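Reopening this ticket.

The earlier resolution said the output was attached, but the attachment link was broken on my side. Pasting everything inline this time so it's all in one place.
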Amino acid sequence: MKHLLYILLLSFTIYSNIYSADPDPYYSAPAGGTINLSQEGGIYLTAQGELKVLVVFVRFKDDTSPHPYWPAGQPPQNYSTFIDPNLQTGSTHHINLTNYFKKMSFGMYKITGQVLYVETPNNKSYYGTNRFLANKEVLQQKVDPLVNFADYDNWSSSANYTHSNQPDGKVDMIVMIWRGLVFSTDWSGEASLGYGGSFSVENGTKTIKTSFGLNDGSGVTVQYWGARTPERNFKVSVHEISHWLLGGSHPYGGGNDQHKIWGMLTLADEGICANTYERERLAWINPTPITGDVLNAPFQDYVEYGTAYKYHPSNGSTNEYFYFENHQKLNIYDNATNNANDKGIFILHQQGVYNGTNNIRVKTSNGQWDWVQNGTATCFEGVSVPKFKPTGVNRAGRNNKDKLLKTDGSSEFLFYLDYSGIGDWQNSGCGGWLRGEGLNNAFNTTYNNVFSNYSNPWARRWSNDVTNNFTMEIIAQNGSVVNARFYITKFLRNKSI
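Inline output:
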């Protein structure tokens, strides 16, 4: 049953580095790589066992530009805890690669390593925008004297998804994190070391490769720019490493039909927790397929325990799935929504494998709507954004995590919610609406407990043109465990919304 919630307008201060209408530089998408759905695990790099990763924070020696988290002439704040030196350290904070991959993989992927801070041998003008040359000189002249690169050669790969815990002479993974947007304003991270060939370190005994793909690379390049929080910059590092695990394609593209989701390969301002598709591809979880009626499906917390269900509509695309995840915010990386009170089943609808298009979206429990733009407003320290408001139910329409159409035919995300008078949309003003703040996106026993062909949102296939008999009904919750029923042979007509 769905209850209309009247939520008091929250008064809060909006910081530009948390809610920003200015787009991040996109991640640079590497080329190549075919996803083989018959195989699981990391495609170019192991996703199991222990991986040693070298993290290098780098500053151009003449860079004195302002940076709120990285003082000129000094290391960045808290840089030394970016990765644990061993498994015994046991860090539990957010910005830590060891902790992140431990939590996402349930301990199957053990990332440890070393963190360094260095400065370039030459001034910025010497390198220009040549990140290959900059990475090469730093690694050979500044890093090689400080580390034993043999510690970072522990894996070899004979084919996609086929990795053995034996050194092959090539360094496995280096994360180069540069101070500022020093190479390009078009991207925050890139899954290579510059595409300039290979070079030797460790007295010629180890090779660093700088491209992307099977046996073609040894690392990634990140630009740590000061207009965004350390958490968002951490997401960039996770994202670029994840290309080596999941392939070169993003789960998003351009145009008017974009969606905000969570995942390892999503943008820096989106949730960092790996989604069901990603965890399954890496053999970290085995979601339960729904192939018949299920009268009692218990959901433990998805991020903490990995419980998930998936449904392939019989009349859908070949690799089309609905994924069902219970987010109870038991894990520090559970930021599918920024609304601390919005807990329950979140539904992802995916048309196919990641392929650089907008083929995965959230089915939010507050439904799909028609939207109109009603002028503009000034938010986030002077940025002009469109004012949007929902005007009526449209089950084939858009929700607060989708790009919305403007009066000029272009589109923008929901940064300003205009008051509509509709019960579900009582909040208004500038805010983090597209990230769920002040809104209900989860299905639960107290808000919206049914997802079917007669609910809003509905359970039709991606193209919205064919009905089916699928229904999810939430029937109970005990602590953090949610119980649901799934029907594929009948629908709940009397639960329409």
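Reporter confirms the inline version is readable. Residues 1-23 have pLDDT under 50 and may be disordered. The first helix runs from residue 97 to 105.
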